[in-house]
Each structure stands twice: as structure tokens, then as C-alpha cells.
Amino acid sequence: MRDIYHDRLDHLVDRLVTMCQLAADAMRDATAALMTCDLTAAERVIADDRVVDMARSTCESDAHLLLALQAPVAGDLRLVIMAMHAADSLERMGDLAEHVAETVRRRYPRQVLPATLRPRFAAMGGIAVTLAENAATALRTRDPAILAAADEADGELNDLHRSLFAILEYQDWAYGAGAAVDAAQLSQCYERFGDHAVSIARRATFVATGTMTREAS
Questions:
Q1: From the centroid of its chain, how far is CA 85?
Q2: Among 64-78, 83-97, 160-174, 196-210, the least confident range
Q3: Domains of the chain (ranges plus CATH)?
Q4: What are 137-181's pLDDT values in tens digits?
Q5: Is the CB of residue 167 less than 8 Å from the CB of residue 173?
Q6: Which of 7, 76, 93, 94 has the fewest CB atoms in 10 Å of its CB?
Q7: Is the whole model's pTM more than 0.90, yes or no?
Q8: SS3 assignment for the chain
């Protein structure tokens, strides 16, 4: 009976790892659509978001069932609680990638970003995808070193987000208020995506150590 119980715990973690990959793929494809004004790719990201939503519902149902039937304690209890928080974060990450894609669709056939900003957002997209992949590794291994790497990458993403506003407020900005608003909102999507990914890595480490580390400043 306990073997079945631990199989269910392992299966729950596997579902979360799959959701991490779905979120990473969604942000990768949404960023590619943003860079190239690819409506087909944007529509695919929007349509596929329902897969992440369904996966969250399944993870939460599995977690509640384990709580109700198995009464887990100690590390197992931390794992189940972590799974519920992680599933919520991963759904939000999917929604953020969807928002990037929806912006591409809304502005099509016009490019959302001026050429001068595209390298910055390509970099932000790359970091965001790496952070989602780090979250998956943290879920599998619960290695504190993964959290340290994620915190460092998230710091880079936050710096890119904060420094964007200096560009948008510069007096020679020549692309209009609409482009500035789009850039600011998209930058926040990437920044929030990264925050959710780091939160997952932090909670995964908590499962192993029993200590919740403080967020990096």
C-alpha cells in the first residue's frame, strides 16, 4: 500500500515537471512569435494554454486526494503542499506566455516592438525559459544549488525589466505611447514569469530541507 502511495507522490512530481516544460515551451514560442510577428505561433500558444490549465486541475485533485486518504506528514506533507502552490504558479506562467502571444495577435500584422527593443526581449525570453527549466530540475532533484542558479538568473531578468523604464522615459523615444505601454506590459510578463519559476524552485528546496529560504534581493 505504501508503494502505491509513493508512486502517487512521484507521479504528482512528474506532472509538475511536465507543466514546467509546457510553460517553458509556451514562453519560448511566444517570444519567437514576438520577435518575428508570427501569428500562427502566437495562435498555437493561446490554444495550448488550456493544456496547462487542465494539468493544474489534475495536480490539485491528486494533491487533495493524497491529503484526504494518506494524511502525509513531514517531508511528504511539504511535498503535497508544494505541489499545490507550484501548480498554481505554473498555470500563471502559462497565462503570462499566453498574454505575450495575445499581444502579438492583437497588433498583427504590425510588429509589437521596435527593432531597438527586440534583442532585449529576446534575452528576457531566453532567461525566462531557462528559469522554467531550472524549476523542473529543482522539482526533480530538490538541489539547493539549482535555487542559487535560479536566483542569479532571475536577478538578470529583473535588471532588464527595471532598466527598460529608463529607455521608455528617454526624451528621444520616438515610437509612441502605444509601443511604450506594450513594451512595459510585456516586460512585466517576463519578470513575473521568472518570479513564479523561482518560487517553485524555492518551495522544492523547502521540501528537502524543511527551511524556506528568503528571496534574493
A1: 13
A2: 64-78
A3: 2-209 (1.20.58.220)
A4: 999 999 999 999 999 999 999 999 999 999 998 868 889 999 999
A5: yes
A6: 7
A7: yes
A8: CHHHHHHHHHHHHHHHHHHHHHHHHHHHHHHHHHHHCCHHHHHHHHHHHHHHHHHHHHHHHHHHHHHHHHCCCHHHHHHHHHHHHHHHHHHHHHHHHHHHHHHHHHHCCCCCCCHHHHHHHHHHHHHHHHHHHHHHHHHHHCCHHHHHHHHHHHHHHHHHHHHHHHHHCCCCCCCHHHHHHHHHHHHHHHHHHHHHHHHHHHHHHHHHHCCCCCCCC
Q: Which residue has the cell 542569479?
A: 152
152 Cα distance to chain centroid: 16
Cβ atoms of 186 and 112 closer than 8 Å: yes
Question: Distance between CA 25 and CA 211 in Å, rounded?
Answer: 31
Which residue carries 512521484 as its cell?
10
| pLDDT tens digits, one per residue of 3-34 | 777 888 899 999 999 999 999 999 999 999 99
Mean pLDDT of 180-195: 97
Please give the angle made by the CA atoms of 165, 166 and 167, to the nearest 5 degrees.
90
